[in-house]
Amino acid sequence: MSTEITWEDPYCGEGNNCFRIGTDPTGNAYIAVTGQEDAPLTDTHEALRALILNIKAGKADHLL
Question: Which domain of life is it from (predicted)?
């Protein structure tokens, strides 16, 4: 991937389910499984923020 992504420290839930969140200088946001940062999901900062806020609000609990 040619885009320069600044990755945050990994976030790990129970077990080995770790992921990382990153951003680039143009305002895109990225989320990837730790160790697979070369194949992230990409969206806008706003979309990633909405995803995180909805997860924190329990709106994705049914997926767990």
Answer: Bacteria
CA distance 3 to 48: 18
Tokens for 54, please give them. Answer: 């909805």
Q: Please give the structure tokens belonging to residue 42.
A: 């990409």
Average confidence (pLDDT) over 17-35: 89
Task: Answer positive or negative: Cα dihedral of 26, 30, 23, 5.
Answer: negative
Take residue 12 and report the two structure tokens written for it: 């790990």
Q: Model's pTM, two decimal places?
A: 0.68
Do 15 and 25 touch, CB atoms closer than 8 A? no
- How many CA atoms are closer than 13 Å to the CA of 10, on its beta-carbon side? 13
Other C-beta atoms closer than 10 Å to the C-beta of 20 total 19
